Amino acid sequence: MTAAHADLQIDCPRVTDGAALWRIARDSKVLDLNSSYSYLLWCRDFAATSAVARAESGEAVGFVTGYVRPDRPDTLFVWQVAVDAAYRGRGLAAALLDGLAARLVAQRGLTTLETTISPDNFASQRLFASFAERHGAGLEREVLFDAGLFPDGPHEPEVLHRIGPLSPAR
Q1: What confidence score (pLDDT) does residue 152 get?
Q2: Per-residue pLDDT at 8
Q3: What is the helix (H) or strand (E) element at residue 108, kind and residue range?
Q4: What's the burial of 35, exposed, middle or buried (CB within 10 Å: 0-12/13-18/19+)?
Q5: Residue 70: Cβ within 10 Å count
Q6: Structural element, H or E, at residue 140
Q7: Which of 32, 38, 78, 170 would be a feasible disulfide site paired with 66, CB 3.0-4.6 Å?
Q8: C-alpha pair distances (Å), 163 with each of 127, 128, 132, 137
Q9: Quick one: which H or E segment has residue 136?
Q10: Phi and psi at residue 4, in whole multiples of 5°?
């Protein structure tokens, strides 16, 4: 944990974090908000491939949710990254992403990280580009889901960002 995050603890989410993750995602005003039920399930079923940052009180103040792709066991797909407004601007999203990737590279031999980002989400584009740069990894982009595939109204395309190869920390 860096000095900027000395007051925070990063670990795996617990089911009791689900409501806080839902609130952080809702309050981001950027993420597609999933049902509160899905965040509870995420904290139960995908805790090992996700990370949460906790304040001294134990309350979740940031998170990364992800899963290992069933057809590519060396690839982590990052579903969402969000930080509570009071904790933004401190590099917490990058610390969460770095910590999760390091853990999964060491535990599971992860070599690739994927995520999708809409074209107007510049903060996420910067986050993942800087992640690739910090890790000396390549970054490829391609449209994964065109806007016309979304049945629930206007939606920007989702651009796949594939980062790799990742290697163990030295």
Answers
A1: 87
A2: 92
A3: helix 92-108
A4: exposed
A5: 7
A6: strand 138-145
A7: 78
A8: 12, 8, 6, 6
A9: none
A10: -65, -15
Find where tokens 């595939």 sit. Answer: 149
What confidence tens digit (pLDDT) does each residue in 62-97 have? 999 999 999 999 999 999 999 999 999 999 999 999
Q: Which two tokens stand for residue 163?
A: 């980062």
Q: How far apart are CA 166 and CA 110, in angstroms?
A: 7
Estimate the share of the chain in helix, then strand, then coil, as percent rounded to the nearest 5: 40, 30, 30
* pTM of the full structure: 0.93
Structure-token pair, residue 155: 């939606």
Tokens representing 119 are: 């074209």
The DSSP 8-state label assigned to residue 110 in this structure reads: -
According to DSSP, the residues that pair with 114 across neighbouring strands are: 77, 162
Q: How many CA atoms lie within 13 A of 48 on its CB side?
A: 7
CA distance 13 to 126: 25
Enter the tokens of residue 3. 């000095």
The Cα 5–Cα 93 span in angstroms is: 11
Q: Does residue 11 come out as left (phi exceeding 0), alpha (psi in the -120 to 50 range) or beta?
A: beta
103-140: pLDDT as tens digits: 999 999 999 999 999 999 999 999 999 999 999 999 99
